[in-house]
Amino acid sequence: MRFVTISDIEAAAERVRGTAVHTPLLRQHWAPGQLWLKPESLQPIGAFKIRGAYNAIAALGENERTRGVVAYSSGNHAQAVAYSAKAFGVPAVIVVPDSAPRLKVNATREWGAEVVEVPFADQAPVAAQLARERGLTLVPPFDHPDVIAGQGTAGLEIAADLPEVDTVLVPVSGGGFASGVGIAVKQRCPAAKVYGVEPELAADAEESLREGRRVEWPMADRARTIADGQRAQPSDLTFAHLQKVLDGIITVSEDEIRRTVRTLALRSRLVVEPSGATAPAAYLHHTSELPGGRTVAIVSGGNLDPALLTELLA
Amino acid sequence: MRFVTISDIEAAAERVRGTAVHTPLLRQHWAPGQLWLKPESLQPIGAFKIRGAYNAIAALGENERTRGVVAYSSGNHAQAVAYSAKAFGVPAVIVVPDSAPRLKVNATREWGAEVVEVPFADQAPVAAQLARERGLTLVPPFDHPDVIAGQGTAGLEIAADLPEVDTVLVPVSGGGFASGVGIAVKQRCPAAKVYGVEPELAADAEESLREGRRVEWPMADRARTIADGQRAQPSDLTFAHLQKVLDGIITVSEDEIRRTVRTLALRSRLVVEPSGATAPAAYLHHTSELPGGRTVAIVSGGNLDPALLTELLA
Questions:
Q1: In this complex, do A302 and B30 lie within 8 Å of one another by their Cβ atoms?
Q2: How many domains does chain B have?
Q3: Which structural domain range is residue B54 located in?
């Protein structure tokens, strides 16, 4: 297994420049202590996923890329691959679970991708089959060094904008984002602590890190959380990275997630999806479990159905 | 009358660095044409006003500043002066109209300022009296070269981030923001057009520019718009600047403002106050009145009462 290096992430930063937004760090004076948010919700597709997907497609050979790409995803990665393929002018097929939020599925179609809806468990095999049949390259949501390196560019930005950062909070689902951000932050700011954040109802990575081995949670369990972007679980590759770079994982309750979506709208003026609220929720509701100091909580995305937004604001 | 120069704005940019956020330009792919938003709603106090207020206070002599500052404002300028005074550790007294939104008044108090509530028409005389009695320096909301220069730093950022910009849309109230942004953009990008945007119900600057002289609208008329940050009217100083830098003024309806607040929440993931939505509303609903091309619409602020937000989202 090859670990992603800071050089990989620096190369990714060159590739995604002009496509991914260098999101600002926003000091939150209303919160106790010293909190900055990094609003990845403001990326072109509304989530950090653009970084990894674009980097992975940019890193392909010309011939491979021209044949097109295929991906499977419950939401934001689908949009990220569709967007990036369009940017390169190559075809994209996206396999989505039929349970995916309509907003994310529709947005994927708007980027011009072909969308194939299948039962949740069939996503990976159907994507693999499409790759074989049509000569497409699979862009996985997290289980790939180029994806991890792309996500890590957010960590480089944190280190550049707040070199004296003490603590970084990053959501964990498949673990690609936390892996990449962790590598970048630990390399550039060796004294900083990096904590993953999971919903209590999908805390497989937390249990896995505690046990020192990958523990599988049934999908039916993980599907309970409102944070629909955090229902995946790490692969061998990302788990090995998480073991190396995370100082711990904080778990947050559904109520904490919901309240934080509301707080971020009213105090931070950001529309955030439930998965995007988990890292700030950890800061606001689990202070005693964290080292404190200058803390950056990454807001991973902002794609949520309008009905859910009005419900959470009420 | 001394016109604000690009050097004044460059000096202001040095002063506000580290206090005002360099807000990113966010490409809006869902909108027709080529639209970028500049989300000044993400500034520490939720509006561009931090730029002018901080610059004006930073430009004071040490002795003057130490005695403290006084300001009058219906909202965001109040917070900006309170915030900036706190940053310098000097006292601030803010005179607010008793009709001001509670959210903005409370936020001003949270920054440690002394708040004095008076009837709308008494704001300026009461502030002047406090300045005399207590030796405070008045920081006006727009009628001052240092305030205009500070607001102009947003224009410098646009020119740096999108040098090939064709059109800039900036809201007009007292005219300080549009003056500063206009000077910076026209100097750095001479081919770019700069349009002001006003609510139809408070379109005094539009009428004034058309007539070639300052036309006063009764406050009772201007108070009708939901865009509570756009109820002021230009001074001689700002009107002279607007005459020089604006290529025109677009007026938007109340319905267009309301719909745009909703659209920006759902498509741009930004919580925006009505005044912050007028420039994007001009882009979305008055296309034929604009030259088109690469267009930046500035979102001036994001402070609105929670009840209004839920009403506009419903």
A1: no
A2: 2
A3: 50-138
